[in-house]
Amino acid sequence: MSDVLELVDVSVVRGGGPLVEQITWSVAEGERWVVVGPNGAGKTTLLQIASTYLFPTSGTAAVLGEKLGSVDVFELRPRVGMASASLADRLPRREKVLDIVLTAAYGMTATWRERYEESDEDRALFLLDQLGMSAFVERRFGTLSEGERKRVQIARALMTDPELLLLDEPAAGLDLGGREDLVRRLGRLAADPIAPAMVMVSHHVEEIPSGFTHVLMLRQGKVLAAGPIEETLTSRNLSLCFGLPLVVKQRDARWSAQGLPLNA
Ligand SMILES: Nc1ncnc2c1ncn2[C@@H]1O[C@H](COP(=O)(O)OP(=O)(O)OP(=O)(O)O)[C@@H](O)[C@H]1O
């Protein structure tokens, strides 16, 4: 298996301080990683490197075998699918759902008289169907609920048939039903052997879909633990990660965590 993402001793420094510090982490083909850690731990910073939008201050980062700094990122970007709140904010609310997905094929956020191939439209419709959005293809993006919008973003991220899929808090802001619907769909994607390698940032272990194989735990910009999820996502590690006593449970390939009661 070759590495889809390889960071060696990566630090990012801004305003005199490190955002992330000496991160060594690799993601191989077929792996599905969840990145957890408290607010400000550096999760989004790592995704920005993985999506080629941020270069390390020191250390080396290779995305799909290409070292950042010595490759044309514009050739690399279509090979990486990304869904995040900041990207969603840039999508035009008046655009039709189908076009929101279609424009990804051309690395754009809005239609500009480009002529799409019929095969592109078929793929966009297929992906929207996979994400349960067939009934919404003619709707304007801005009229969708938060959960519907998240599903469209994931369809869009998959449009270029990427080799690496990055999801920054895909379940944030969803109600229980919306979260469970999304987590089930991501679980189905994770189980698909031809789906891309996946890295998902999450604040809650309850959002980890079944089929996720590895976890990276960050605290204050550093790696606290990284490895296969079954042996790494322990009560001890999660407690150290979030700085309070937590108990982690796994049941039917899903995870939950709760804090220990305060002593009376
Ligand atoms: N341009 C910048 N200049 C200075 N500090 C920054 C800059 N960008 C991010 N930071 C800081 O870097 C740290 C890591 O930010 P990052 O967004 O990666 O964390 P995160 O783990 O994704 O947090 P959250 O869970 O709150 O989204 C934070 O403390 C943030 O304030």
From TrEMBL:
Molecular function (GO) terms for this protein are:
ATP binding
Q: Which Pfam family is one of those matched by this entry? A: ABC_tran
UniProt keyword annotations, A-Z: ATP-binding, Nucleotide-binding
Instruction: Write down the SMART domains for this protein, in alphabetical order.
Output: AAA
What is this protein called in UniProt? ABC transporter ATP-binding protein
* Tagged with keyword Membrane: no
InterPro entries from the UniProt entry: AAA+_ATPase, ABC_transporter-like_ATP-bd, P-loop_NTPase
Q: Show where the ABC transporter domain sits.
A: 5-245
